[in-house]
Amino acid sequence: MLKFLKGVVAGSGTGLKDLPYNIGDPYPCAWGSWSHFRGTSKDDGSPVSIFSLTGSNPQDGHLAAGRNGVKRLRTVRHPNILSFLHSTEVESFDGPSPKVIIYIVTEPVMPLSEKIKELGLEGTQRDEYYAWGLHQVAKAVSFLNNDCKLVHGNVCMSSVVVTQTLDWKLHAFDVLSEFDGANATATGPMLQYEWLVGLQYKPMELAKSDWATIRKSPPWAIDSWGLGCLIYEIFSGTKLGNTEELRSTASIPKSLLPDYQRLLSSMPSRRLNTSKLIENSEYFQNKLVDTIHFMEILSLKDSVEKDTFFRKLPNLAEQLPRQIVLKKLLPLLASSLEFGSAAATALTALLKMGSWLSPEEFSLKVLPTVVKLFASNDRAVRVALLQHIDQYGESLSAQIVDEQVYPHVATGFADTSAFLRELTLKAMLILAPKLSQRTLSGSLLKYLSKLQVDEEPAIRTNTTILLGNIASYLNEGTRKRVLINAFTVRALRDTFSPARGAGVMALCATSSYYDMTEIATRILPNIVVLVIDPDSDVRSKAFQAVDQFLQIAKQYNEKSNAGDTADAGSLGISSMPGNAGLLGWAMSSLTLKGKASDQAPVATVNSVMPASTSSPGLIETPSTASAHRVNSSTDFADQPMPPSPTSTDGWGEIENGIHEEQDSDKDGWDDIEPLDEPKPSPVLANIQAAQKRPVSQPVSQPKPQASTSLRAKSTVKVAKDEDDDLWGSIAALPPKSASKPLNVKAAGAVNDDDDPWAAIAAPPPITKAKPLSAGRGRGTKAAAPRLGAQRINRTSSTGM
């Protein structure tokens, strides 16, 4: 029973076996008779520090003082005092006589002397870090002396430890006792255990055991002397040997010297109060101390102060000690961003600091905060995340992107701000390779379909560029349904000349995904029209594209004549030098930000550019683009295509599982349901259809200006014969009704031949045509001409 009560009083455990921590390697030094060990938690493996004190018998004076230290450390809490976690006292019978061991478990720390050696700071950075550490210890001593009326009794280098975030904390409370100057007969640990304090650290009155003078002195007198000893030890780099060494001030900074001398005054009543040391010393006014102090009270600052501070922080961080920035400032900054007290401009500083970390540390310390920020509703934070996505996007795992990041990023596609829509679009270049096929086909392509008819010409152009870049990540079925339709029906018919040029280059860059029938019947007829485009840059790209696809056709013919039909239809982009520029052009246009001089050959246009602006130099021709490639040794189409999951049926997955709620939610590239049973030989059917309706464009165009006006004005009537020539080779049935303009909505019901998608999709459904909806997009104007290709929606079964 006595042993049980003793265990309850002495500690919070009952034995070493029950200690929920593993004891590791020891540190070379510790305060007094204590030993300092590294340790880990048995529950989660988190690091801790374990202090042990061994005594020969329960009445040992070291053990009695140690128990006082355990009690004080458990009850005294302050940010600059070592955090207590657990304690226990055990009795060991290993030797001839039993031994009693006290264990204290605290947060993971390292002795100050060892941390100083490890950091190896010099010059101004050393002085700034020492100032920050002394500032923390002084606050802890001031708290004990002035607020708690306690005396530590042995402030020195051994009684200070350093945390993982490089904070200095005070411990070694074995001699800690209450100060009662009014009671002359008061006794406490100071009287009982003052012999534990080294003689070199004792002020004159304590060395002489002049308790009457001590009681008359202010409560900070003994600890102010100890703080002076600590200052000497850290700046001299040696352990104090005797009191006379304190007179040597050569190593003490001049700005700290007056306060150092006042701390070591021979008269206890004239010693400097530690609280005054913090407030008045010129030494503590430096960039590091001011920066950390601002971060710690960030929630008290107004928005203007925060914005000014975080704009200066990236440059300021380069001037501060690197280890302190990474271990102290970075966690503070990440926490303030995560909990909303920091401004969006803080993200720039966070990513800059994160760039100094190893990839593993970046994933542990920075990425979790960044991922959480994607859920923020603050538009400034969303803009900052998208603008800097190239700095962290590659570090995000595919699962995190698909499940946590993309759902929040995708909201930007429908944002009312054109700038945010464009940033969201550009971010997809980095995120798309990490998306699953289900997300690519069922969500991303739906948004891109809407952006291809966006009111901003720059967004339409960049959408085409993005489609060309992510084509390799789409499965084969999706590519067949999307690419040609997006590039020919929309991009090549856009009223904005850079968008038409982007469509031509996208077709060239993705040429390896088209068979010979598609090239001959769907691609070449559309590109040839652009050789008389009003824009010279578009004409130049069109001529190069025609040459490229004709070269593919010649290679196909040669292989067919040679009897090598197995590889005849798989001629790819890698064999065509004219295509080498698209990767570099598209990559630079979608990843570089804000520097017009660096993006001269780039197709990206500022979102605020008016729709009537037509700048031929915005899109780079294939012949010059190769000089600006991001990776000149890798062609876009040479990247291996990811295998399609067995559960994905290409474009059909949208109809059958992903968007079952409304037909109107389907992607704009597939307005008509595909046939349940595809034809057994589509290539043969396409060839037969092409033979029945041979290409005869010159006959259907009595005036050469027809194709020119098709690009310049959106209200020119397109003859049905011309449409049949472009798309009729793969249409299911010849049209029966008269032709109508593609870009003007009729007031009444229309037939399927008015649909620009009907000719390139499956045969028309057997049901009657339904009336068009009243309007689409953001407004309700019924027939106003719009930029880009027009998409004619069908009403769904719900009437939307």
Automatic annotation (TrEMBL):
Low complexity bias spans: 694-705
UniProt feature, compositional bias: Basic and acidic residues: 656-669
Polar residues compositional bias, start-end: 608-636
SUPFAM superfamilies: ARM repeat, Protein kinase-like (PK-like)
SMART domains per record: S_TKc
HEAT repeats: 366-404, 523-561
Region annotated Disordered, chain positions: 608-721, 747-800
Residue ranges annotated for the Protein kinase domain, each copy included: 2-284
Protein name, per record: Protein kinase domain-containing protein
Highest classification ranks of the organism: Eukaryota, Viridiplantae, Streptophyta, Embryophyta, Tracheophyta
